[in-house]
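User: Second chain of the day. Same drill as before.
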Amino acid sequence: MRNLGMLLLAIGCVTAIAGLLLIVAPKIPWLGNLPGDIHYRGKTTSVQFPIGTCIVGSIILTILLNVVLRLFRR
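Assistant: Same format as last time:
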């Protein structure tokens, strides 16, 4: 039961952080406007490929995950 409790707490924390990011993300002016982000606007369509933003987000999440995992190993 202890493992299940820890798993539920971890899932709850991740969900809370994701919700906070969704609330704060529109207030960050450079998010989605980095070099490498592709924006296409046609007559009736609009398509966005945030490649640069995804790369920066991936790097930040990798660093955070490595720090958290190193803290739990000790």
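Residues 31-74 form one domain.

User: Great, on to the next one.
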